[in-house]
């Protein structure tokens, strides 16, 4: 009788232990992606991601900010690919504005697991950024100046606060306007050759008070692609700075 009880206890222990191990294994298998790569857009650099970076790193993510040169789609693409090449596994690839075109071009990289478009362009193969930017009327608050003698485009300093960063304080917006990083205007007409948003989980953020990109453009792009959209009411084109927590929350969702 005692032997039967001992045998029964052994069977129960084995089952319970096996279920516990299975749960632990399933938990490990569903663990979130730990790598995040952040790509800035035109007229700014990667420092604007500081708020998002701080939130994600405190949550245990390995965050890399790609400082793209804004000299061409090819150059920006190669810069982000070098970052991805050095990672030890899959990553969430995040792009703001022009950075959306860049992450689209890079989207076929093996380490790209999911994509996040932060008020960002999302062209398809064979399209350009200008294909979408010119698809709707421009906004009066936004003003990208004609290219200078070197082919570089700047955002009008006088309109930067209202057009790019209306929900940031005046001093910060003014500093950003005077420290802006120009982009080679030819980048906007460069043809995209990859678009893995067709097959990889894709998330998008639309700030409802963006005055740099017409909201119809964003909604039309994301509707076409089936992107999972989060709208942030009252946020400007600088939503990655002014609403860092909300942006980080979408990135976290994309990592699961």
TrEMBL record:
Q: Name one Pfam family in it.
A: Abhydrolase_6
Task: Name the source's superkingdom.
Answer: Bacteria
InterPro entries under this entry?
A: AB_hydrolase_1 (IPR000073), AB_hydrolase_fold (IPR029058), Sec-Metab_Biosynth_Hydrolase (IPR052897)
Q: Which residues form the AB hydrolase-1 domain?
A: 36-250
Tell me the protein's name: Pimeloyl-ACP methyl ester carboxylesterase
Q: What organism is listed for this UniProt entry?
A: Chryseobacterium geocarposphaerae
